[in-house]
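[step 3/7] fold_predict: job queued, chain A
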Amino acid sequence: AKAGGKEIAKYFGEALEIEEKSMASDFRTKADTEAEKAILAVLQEAFPDFNIYSEEVGKIDKKSDYTFVIDPLDGSNNFALGIPTFCVSIGLLKGDEIIAGVIHHPILNHTYFTEKGKGAWLEGNRLGVNKKSSMASSTFAYTCGYSTSSELEESLIHKLNKKRVKRLLQSWCPTYELCLLAAGKIEGIINNENELYDYCAGKLIAKEAGAKITDFDGNPEVKDKSNIFIISNGTKIHQELLELIK
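[step 4/7] structure written:
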């Protein structure tokens, strides 16, 4: 993760050529591809038999039980605009279960990491969600996939603003938002159809920090790879978010 972050930091602030992928808002730059190369060089040397699922190269199937899920630069639009909110994210799956994750913020030089059952950490400090229970003093994030219908997004933004919450974030860097939740900085996130590499590592980091995760009907999450979920600090605001969605 730090190898990838070093490449990203090297290009930050430069005017880079943008290569469009599925649509105008979905693109890559040289920083994305160079960061990915640096990450893969380290991982494939240390774990040559593990599968790879990375945003730019796609899937490399080695027929292993283990898969690294990589977003070499989450927050590419922020990066291109010169906004320093972007991260490197690497999650590790065993089958369909997330068992480890690391998220590195190259500008702040913050590295969040977790292993299932062993807590979540920022450097040497153990992370934990906060216990705020007032919507009015809480900050929430909404994040979604590029092709997700805007109907739910528009409705939720309207309802959350009507509730007069402290702030609604749409940073387009879900990996970092999940770290903020784990560190007790924000109170909840609505994740609507993001790609696996956008939330794989961060979901486990937040869960190991004490976060509560359900689907949009309030049912406990059954599959780690589910991409529609609410994740919060676990206080009564979780139920209030569910009621807003319903």
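[step 5/7] annotate
Confidence is low (pLDDT under 50) at residues 23-27.
The CA atoms of residues 66 and 128 lie 27 Å apart.
exit 0
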